[in-house]
């Protein structure tokens, strides 16, 4: 209440932005919607009434054959997708820029990952697209893999070529799972990248709460075609989802679908016009660099995701985030060493972008004579050696040691800058000198890294 009482300008999730989306009904009646499985209100784990109807409406709106409501977030959907496609001991080809939920899902399912690296954009220092040639190499070298798991878009709004990837994966007879947590809005505008379901991804998971006016933890799992067994998906979800699902979360999944289906194209059209004006103003009047099609040729971009590079002002993204919050009451979604990232949704208005623009113009005036930020240890790094299988880690003995002393040791935990939750070190992998330098660089620059304790210390196998 202290945070929301400050009436901040929100460029972070959830997509309703503290309830500021004017299209949301029943905002003053939330307690009346917090109900349970009484007659007439159906049962998420065996729907036959209103929940069944709501899921069918969502499937139609998003272009799926089946849609399941998720009340435990996309994390639950990712776990269910992996568990429904893979048996213990199976191989799954996984893009390394996956969210930590995918690693945890493979650990729970006893899956052996085959990682493929996305490209790296050295200008913005961010992970970029997946190349089909790397996916095909993994498919040919691992013919026993059951499927391919990719993240699209990534946290920076970068989209790999889903048509090419889908055709390739299916030509090998494999299942394609797409973590589209940040792309639930794609289906509602021709000016945004195409959604994964448009090109027949078999399982697609979307976080409605990230870019639609849904409540936290609200997400969808979509199934299309017959390559993925929908009954196995259903069975996995029955195991993984809470037995007391939130009707508030489910109701807002339905509300979000309805808003986007009826008003989404018009809303996004207006929003994209405001974003275009913001891009032009910042690009012409400051030294901040905006990730755009003009300076990023590797793949498609989600234009509602603002990636603003801060390097030329001698300030890290972490420092700019703090300035925006403390001086201007603006909260961004995330920051890294060189960038800030803002999520713009239906609930943002032109005035929000105007306030962000004015704040960045102020910073430009204050820091216009500053020297650029020097190079920090960041870049594309090699995937470490997997010394211990994910399925063998849970009950291994471990000890905690200083991060700087961990080179050559096997990590017990995932080490993940958060956000965005993309692992630097996965459980069972060997800590390398380059990865330790990378983690130290983030910590010393003010960033947060999950899996690193105060000290800094890490857990390694004994």
TrEMBL record:
<feature type="domain" description="Orn/Lys/Arg decarboxylase C-terminal">
    <location>
        <begin position="391"/>
        <end position="440"/>
    </location>
</feature>
<dbReference type="InterPro" id="IPR052357">
    <property type="entry name" value="Orn_Lys_Arg_decarboxylase-I"/>
</dbReference>
<dbReference type="Pfam" id="PF01276">
    <property type="entry name" value="OKR_DC_1"/>
</dbReference>
<dbReference type="InterPro" id="IPR008286">
    <property type="entry name" value="Prn/Lys/Arg_de-COase_C"/>
</dbReference>
<keyword id="KW-0663">Pyridoxal phosphate</keyword>
<dbReference type="InterPro" id="IPR015421">
    <property type="entry name" value="PyrdxlP-dep_Trfase_major"/>
</dbReference>
<keyword id="KW-0210">Decarboxylase</keyword>
<protein>
    <submittedName>
        <fullName>Arginine decarboxylase</fullName>
        <ecNumber>4.1.1.19</ecNumber>
    </submittedName>
</protein>
<comment type="similarity">
    <text>Belongs to the Orn/Lys/Arg decarboxylase class-I family.</text>
</comment>
<keyword id="KW-0456">Lyase</keyword>
<dbReference type="GO" id="GO:0008792">
    <property type="term" value="F:arginine decarboxylase activity"/>
</dbReference>
<dbReference type="InterPro" id="IPR000310">
    <property type="entry name" value="Orn/Lys/Arg_deCO2ase_major_dom"/>
</dbReference>
<dbReference type="Pfam" id="PF03711">
    <property type="entry name" value="OKR_DC_1_C"/>
</dbReference>
<feature type="domain" description="Orn/Lys/Arg decarboxylases family 1 pyridoxal-P attachment site">
    <location>
        <begin position="1"/>
        <end position="287"/>
    </location>
</feature>
<dbReference type="InterPro" id="IPR015424">
    <property type="entry name" value="PyrdxlP-dep_Trfase"/>
</dbReference>
